[in-house]
C-alpha cells in the first residue's frame, strides 16, 4: 500500500484537471502533470482524480498509474538514480550494476526508494549514451562505464556528503 | 435472412451481436470464461471462445460480429489444443484447493479443466507468492489467488453500479483485479451488492458464509432459532435443488426449514406488507406537506449504503422505514417472546434468508443493535447458503410436503411477494396508497407499466384526480443518474424506487449462480407475479395479520410505537480515504 508523506494541495490538482477540461481521454497527460508537481503520484491524488473525473474511479485511475512504467507511486529520493538497461548497457553488464545498487541501498523486491528517502532507483531503457555503456544518471549527471565497485563509491560519496 | 455456416451446417441469424450468440442459439457451444451476455462492454480476454473462420484464421467469437456467408468451425484439433494450453496456463497460476473452495461444483474453470482433460503439467511457472485473502467485507470474500483476470467483476461493478470499486492494477503477470492500491473492500465504497461474486466464473469472489454458525445454533439445545425468508428466495432456490428456475417453493420452504431445525418459520413477505403500510402512509404525508420529495424507497441495503457513502446530502429523501428484513427482525425480537411459549429474549436467535449479500451488512448496522448488544438479526444467509444446508441435510424437494408458516407473522399478500422484483415495491405501495387516498377499492391491482425488467421505468398514475409520477430504476448506475436529475431540479416524479441489482432482488448477489442470464431472471420474476396472482389477498392492508398487529400493538401506520419499532435513521458514512467532492 502506498503512503503519502506530503500534504496534498488539491486546488493545484483542480487547476490541472480544469486545464484539461476534466476529459477522460486526457487522463495520462493529467497524471504526468500531477507527477511533475509531486515527483510521484500520491494515493490521495489518484483518489481525488478518480472522484473528480466523471466516468472514472480511484481504482481505474490507479490501474492506469500502475500500468505505465513512467508513473511512480513512491516518493522519489533526494538522489534519483537511473540505471540504463538498454541493449548496449545490458550486454556490457548493467544487470550487475543494478544488483550492486539494490544491495548497497538495501532495496528489496518491489521497493525503489530507500527508507531514509535519500535515494530512489529507476530502470530506464536506452539513455542514448551507448558509447558510455553501462551508464547511470544521478540527478541528471551521467556516470559512464559503471561497475559494481564504481556505483558503490558514488553512493558512499553522496552519503558522506549528506552526513557532512 | 442472413446465414453463417457453423461446422458445416447453415445457421440463420438476425440481431445476434456476435458469432458466439449465433453458435449458442443453434445448439452448438464453445467454452467462455470472460463472456457474460448481460455485460455490454466487449472484453475478449480469456480466448476460450476462439473459432476458426475461413479465410480469417482464429477469431474470438465473443467479439466477432456475424457476417452473411461466414464459414466457421468451433472444435478443430488446433482450437482444442489452444484451449487446453490456455487452461493449463490458468491452472498453473490457480490455487487448486478445489475441495475447500466455495465455488466447487459451480466453477467454470473446474468444469472446463475436466472437459479438456487438463492435468497439472509442471510446464509452466506458478505464482510465487500467496496473496492475502480479503475477508474485511461483511458480504463477500476476495481471494486473488483464484482470479483468472476475466474482468467480469470489474465490468459488473462499473456497468451495474457505476462504482468501479474494482479495477485492474499493474500489468503483465503482476496484474490484479482489486480495489485501489490493494485496499480491503471494507475500506472502499463497496456497497456489498455481491454482483461481482454472482458473475465470477471461479472462486475468486465468493459470498461470506455463515452456514457453520447457523448449524451450530440449530444444534444448540439452549437456543430457539427463528427464521424468515425474503420474497425472491422462494422462486430461485429450486435451481440448486434440481428444480426449474421460477418454481415457487414457498410451502416446501416452510416445512424444509422446520425439518433442518428452525423452531419458528416466518415470511419476510409479511414484513414487506408491513413496510408498505408504513411507507405508503409516509409517502402520502410527504405528498401532503410537499417535503422531501421524491421519496426514495429504502428496502435495498446496497442503495442505502450508496447514498450514505456517496450522497449523504440526499438522505432526507430516503424513506425512514426499515427494510422488510429489519422490520421482521424487530418484530421477532419484540413480539416472539410474547406470542410463543418457550421463547425468551435470552434464548432467541434470529436468522434471515436473503437473496442478497448486502443484507449481511445491513444486519450489522449500529441502528439495529439492541440494548443488550445483540442485533435484531443474528445471522443472514443467502439463498445459496441455505440451498447448501438443504443439500447437507439430504432433502429431496421433489418429495417434500408443504406446510404453512407460523402465525402470527407468517401470512402475506401478493403485494408483499412482488417486493422481490424491480417495480414491485412501487406497485405494492400504490395499491395501498390508492385506497387510502380515494377511499375506494382498487379493482385492477396489476400495474403493468411498473412490471418488466427494464432498468428504467417511469409511470404516471391518476389517483382520482391526484396525479402521481413514479420512477423505478434498477442498478445504481441508473440511480446515480436520478440523483443528478434531482440535484439539477429536473426530476418531476414524487417517488423513486431503487434496487441495486439488475432486475431487482430476484437477481441478487446471493441468489443461485446464473451467470446473470437474462432468461433466468425473467423466470424468477414470473414466479413472483404468479405468486401474487394466486394470493388470497393482493394488498398489504388486507393481510389479516397486519390488521391485527396494528389493532393490538401499533395503533396505526406511522404512530409513535410504529416509529420506534419500524423506522430508522441514516448518517453520512463517507470514507476517510475518499475526498468529499460535493463542496467546491
Explain the overall architecture:
The complex is a heterodimer of chains A (164) and B (584). Chain A has 164 residues and is of the alpha+beta class. Chain A folds into 2 domains: 10-67, no CATH class; 79-163, 3-Layer(aba) Sandwich (Glutaredoxin), CATH 3.40.30. In chain A, 46% of the residues lie in helices and 11% in strands. Chain A has 7 helices and 4 strands, in the order H-H-H-H-E-H-H-E-E-E-H. Chain A has helices at residues 10-19, 27-38, 43-52, 58-67, 87-91, 94-105, 148-163; strands at 79-84, 119-124, 136-138, 141-143. Chain A has a 4-stranded mixed sheet, covered by helices on one side. In chain A, strand 3 (136-138) and strand 4 (141-143) form a beta hairpin. In chain A, helix 6 packs parallel to helix 7 (148-163). The mean pLDDT of chain A is 90. Chain B is of the alpha/beta class and 584 residues long. Chain B folds into 3 domains: 2-75, Ubiquitin-like (UB roll), CATH 3.10.20; 86-207, Alpha-Beta Plaits; 211-566, Rossmann fold (3-Layer(aba) Sandwich). Chain B has 18 helices and 17 strands. Chain B has helices at 19-25, 77-92, 108-115, 152-159, 195-199, 211-218, 250-259, 268-289, 301-310, 324-339, 358-363, 383-392, 414-417, 424-438, 476-487, 518-533, 544-554, 560-566, and strands at 2-6, 9-13, 50-53, 57-60, 71-73, 140-142, 167-169, 176-178, 205-207, 224-229, 264-267, 295-296, 348-354, 379-382, 456-463, 466-474, 495-499. Chain B has a 5-stranded mixed sheet, with helices on one face. In chain B, strands 11-10-13-14 form a 4-stranded parallel sheet, sandwiched between helices. In chain B, strands 12-17-16-15 form a 4-stranded mixed sheet, with helices on both faces. In chain B, strand 1 and strand 2 (9-13) form a beta hairpin. Chain B is globular. The N and C termini of chain B lie far apart (57 Å). Classes of the chains: A alpha+beta (164), B alpha/beta (584). Chains A and B meet through helix 3 and helix 4 of A and strand 7 of B.
